[in-house]
């Protein structure tokens, strides 16, 4: 390899066929007019009018003061929902609320600004922030205090998952404006395309990823059989000529290659494109420090290595919704979702964590599970209250809300107890301060 170019004997020269080369697309270019709709014709409008006229109106019993938007999320009671009470909320009496991307409540501009301020603050508190902050500006005592706080938050998350306290100084209807009440986490419907940002169209999606994988691998095997004569022999030395390489990238690659080997790997179809990858991941036994969601980690996926901020979630086999997890806990598998180049499973995964002044250490291991941008990950919170008086069918609960308006706002949401009892809010009892409310069992 160290010999001069004049002593190299060229046996074969292979030039790629442009017709067989895959375009190296990374991001999708969305069509801004793809979602446009044409104005309906007179015949279509007349048909829709007749259809609405003939539709039978079903009367529903709704709590007093319920708006049309709140009423749309109240699901009628069905017989098959009875078994979900213990599965959905087995720990403590509370209210299960799931976050959505954008609030759709009608409000004025001042309310919208207040909502965005409080919800952003709440997200930072629940997730714990993406990073510990700038370590250069922190003293040793502050860093130790921050690490202690993260460890305590990790322990609380294991003992009391999803539980949050209602703030005293902020109305709950504003603090939790980005959340939606679900009767059942498993069976309630949720549109994966709802309220997506326009930038989300830049990633690639597949109708059926498993079928695409079989097609790509079969096509690759067919091409290998046809072009076996037009390839370099195994064990032979080759000289690669890569065109259209930026100067800065080439300079960064040349210096490390003098002391470290350069790994070259071929890509299958679609493997240069960006999508959402979901890994089945487990915390390594030798790593004791907490691992938070959205914390920067080094992912080694096959021959690839990149830095990502994974979002951890539970692995629900019989449900299309996955509950977000604030930490990666010991002793069980979770799902880590990241934006990354597409790969086809099975692909091994090794996650490394950078430690200041030390070599990266192994934090977690796993495998690639699926590639699906439409997988729903919901942040679930539980608001808890304390029963003060309990009768046969009614109970008085305190400290779940602190304002009468909040009690009326959350009336449509169904309540649960740790023993599976269900009920709804009837009325607020307190006039000021810590509000009480009557709960009636269904």
Automatic annotation (TrEMBL):
Region Disordered: start-end pairs: 71-111
A molecular function (GO) term: GTPase activity
GO biological process: endonucleolytic cleavage of tricistronic rRNA transcript (SSU-rRNA, 5.8S rRNA, LSU-rRNA); maturation of SSU-rRNA from tricistronic rRNA transcript (SSU-rRNA, 5.8S rRNA, LSU-rRNA)
Pfam family, one: RIBIOP_C
Alphabetized InterPro entries for the sequence: Bms1/Tsr1, BMS1_TSR1_C
Transmembrane segments: none
Biased composition (Acidic residues): 76-86
Top-level division of the source organism's lineage: Eukaryota
Coiled-coil residue windows: none
One GO cellular component, as annotated: preribosome, small subunit precursor
Protein name per the record: Ribosome biogenesis protein BMS1/TSR1 C-terminal domain-containing protein
């Amino acid at each position: 390899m160290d010999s001069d170019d004049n002593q190299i004997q060229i046996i074969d020269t292979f030039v790629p066929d442009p017709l067989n080369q895959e375009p190296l697309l990374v991001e999708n270019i969305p069509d801004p007019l793809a979602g446009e709709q044409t104005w309906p014709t007179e015949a279509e409008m007349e048909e829709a009018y007749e259809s609405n006229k003939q539709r039978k109106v079903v009367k529903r019993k709704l709590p007093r003061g319920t708006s049309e938007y709140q009423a749309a999320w109240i699901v009628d009671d069905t017989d098959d929902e009875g078994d979900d009470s213990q599965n959905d909320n087995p720990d403590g009496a509370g209210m299960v609320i799931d976050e959505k991307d954008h609030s759709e409540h009608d409000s004025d501009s001042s309310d919208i600004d207040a909502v965005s301020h409080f919800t952003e603050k709440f997200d930072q508190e629940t997730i714990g922030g993406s990073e510990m902050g700038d370590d250069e500006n922190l003293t040793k005592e502050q860093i130790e205090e921050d690490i202690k706080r993260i460890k305590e938050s990790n322990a609380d998350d294991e003992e009391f998952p999803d539980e949050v306290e209602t703030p005293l100084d902020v109305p709950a209807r504003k603090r939790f404006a980005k959340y939606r009440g679900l009767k059942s986490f498993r069976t309630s419907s949720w549109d994966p395309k709802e309220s997506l940002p326009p930038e989300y169209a830049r990633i690639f999606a597949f109708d059926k990823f498993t079928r695409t994988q079989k097609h790509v691998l079969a096509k690759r095997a067919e091409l290998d059989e046809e072009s076996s004569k037009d390839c370099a022999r195994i064990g032979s030395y080759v000289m690669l000529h890569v065109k259209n390489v930026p100067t800065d990238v080439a300079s960064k690659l040349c210096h490390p290659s003098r002391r470290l080997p350069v790994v070259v790997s071929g890509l299958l179809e679609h493997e240069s494109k960006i999508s959402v990858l979901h890994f089945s991941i487990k915390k390594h036994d030798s790593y004791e420090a907490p691992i938070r969601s959205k914390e920067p980690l080094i992912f080694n996926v096959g021959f690839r290595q990149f830095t990502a901020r994974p979002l951890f979630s539970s692995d629900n086999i019989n449900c299309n919704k996955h509950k977000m997890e604030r930490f990666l806990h010991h002793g069980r598998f979770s799902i880590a979702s990241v934006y990354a180049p597409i790969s086809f499973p099975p692909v091994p995964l090794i996650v490394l964590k950078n430690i200041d002044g030390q070599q990266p250490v192994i934090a977690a291991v796993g495998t690639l599970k699926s590639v699906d941008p439409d997988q729903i990950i919901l942040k679930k919170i539980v608001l808890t209250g304390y029963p003060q008086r309990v009768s046969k069918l009614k109970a008085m609960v305190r400290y779940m809300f602190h304002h009468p308006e909040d009690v009326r706002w959350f009336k449509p949401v169904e309540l649960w107890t740790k023993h599976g009892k269900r009920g709804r809010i009837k009325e607020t009892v307190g006039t000021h301060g810590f509000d009480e409310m009557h709960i009636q069992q269904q």
